[in-house]
Amino acid sequence: MHPDLATVPPEPVDARPSIMSPLWALAVAGFRRYSTYRQATVAACVTNSVFGFLRSFVFLATIAGATAATGVANAAGYTAEQLLTFCWVTQGLIGVVALWGWTDLGDRIRTGDVVADLLRPLNPVLSYLAIDLGRAGFAVLIRFVVPVAVGALFFDLYVPRHLATYPLFAVSMILGVVVCFGCRFLLNAVGYWLLDLRGVIAAWFVVTGLFVGLTFPLPFLPDWAEATLWIATPFPSIMQGPLDILVERGGQAHQGLILLAQSLWSVVLLLSCAYVQQRAERKLVIQGG
């Protein structure tokens, strides 16, 4: 051995595994898993595009009625281009935020397979969140892009005037996914106590379409109702927030408030998920699970 090398101490090796490595692996696994559902993805894109045409003509009729009544070509502060953009981007966001249909945790609770999740070294909330973010990444590439491209092909959509709007929309969309995941996780976690989630899922299906801004923009509601939804519920942070940022409604101050609300709801919901999961694990131990 060279004499100089003999005096060099070995570099310390950190034996502690990084938590980001398994979470990244789970995100990649989530991306790959949902990329295999090719027929379902095509069917969803076709369905969302068809409903996009139906909603577009409803919004155009709304603008025409508002113009005839007030002489101003906008409805609740939205121009025709903004409303059409709102329509087609919401059709794309349905798959990104996974507003409906996610019952992975509830199904595993019902079958008892959730016990395997509890044996893993990672927190179940973080594990499912990582998988969901991977799923959302795939959905952005297909479920989001296809309907928006179809809408842009047949209608004049709103193009953001400021370059900063694009990264702000991307951040808002990610926060919308996290907020929706938190709601869905809590919804599924009810299965620890009820086992049968069909009634809860049906109620979620009815409520979300109205309150997240999918059926119509929330500014169509009275001011007090819209403010109540923003302050007291996480629903507007799922879709209405990202869409208002994209169509640049209300200016930069409004965009900042939207991101703040989404961030706060993300933290509150993830902490709530962790608390409910902890309570559920105690319940399983008491039951001898």
UniProtKB/TrEMBL annotation:
InterPro entries per the UniProt record, alphabetical: ABC-2_transporter-like
TM segment ranges: 57-77, 83-102, 136-158, 164-187, 199-220, 256-276
UniProt key word rRNA processing: no
Sorted UniProt keywords: Membrane, Transmembrane, Transmembrane helix
Keyword Transmembrane helix: yes
Protein name: ABC-2 family transporter protein
